[in-house]
Design brief:
Number of strands: 18
CATH topology of the largest domain: Tumour Suppressor Smad4
Strand content: 25-35%
CATH architecture of the largest domain: Sandwich
Shape: globular
Largest sheet: 10 strands, antiparallel
Radius of gyration: 23 Å
Structural class: alpha+beta
Length: about 325
Amino acid sequence: MTTRVHVEPIQARPTEPTRRRGVLIVNPYSSGMTSARERTIVRALREHLDVEVRRTERPGHATRMAAALTDRSEHDVVIACGGDGTANEVLNGLALGNDTAGERPDFAIIPAGGTNVLARSVGHPNHPVKALKVLIDGIVAGRTRTINLGTMDERTYMFSAGVGLDGELIKRMDARRSGRRPSDLAHLTQILGLYASSRFSFTDTMTVHVEGSTTPDLRAAFVLVGNTTPMTYVGNFAMHMMPEASLEGGLDFVAPQRANAAFAIRNAMQSLGFDRAKRRLVSDEKLQLHHDVAGFTVTCEEPTAVQADGEYLGDRTHITFGLLRNAVNLVV
């Protein structure tokens, strides 16, 4: 007689989901960062992913740190914790190009600077700990938005760049800066000083050539370039100078031929949304507004200050603007 033996089927043990691997690059000198906030951020991240912490010590340090983090097989996400300058440095270290989004780690921003334009423009709270609370699910799940980035000569930028007025403003602010970011009032004072030194009117001193355009080259007093909107913030108020700009689109820019004080006031009011009876206070023709272009060049009659993402990059006479399509996956 055969005895049957009942064998219980082996139950597979549930496997733990693979934890994502991240690198947090922190600028401890950012205006919104404190030691306590850094500890809170690191503790929260380590509850959900394996994260290595690196701290910047000087300008340009974040770029050198990020240069070693371009292998997606080793790192799932690179997180910049600081201001717009820190985020810009990290992106410039990732060796981005056209269609590199799938080859590089995801990129996340924890806003800890004074203005935090890109982070705020995609909906993050303007506070590092509050932003992390809403961002951490996206970091863990890998929830991203594939974005385009702008280039200015050798530099990659996230949201804005410029030649002339804003470059000179940042140049002057950097010259008088000591420690934390100057206030919005200090910026306004410097803008007034710039207009006063030019007798309250900027005239055309540069030529703009748009790639693939059949229209004549433009003469311009200054050039402001945007890769998204808003271009910047004044306190809690967003300034939409190029309201149709998009992180998934091409470059937008304004290049007015002349800009007196009245023009500047009307344009500022329009950018802040104070259009009278929904009428534009400055026409697109006077702004020489261009939307969704792939690239252009600016030639200046004399060396002129340039900036990218709020960083002064020197005085130049010939500047080439370009676009990197599908450059990086931004965590949202």
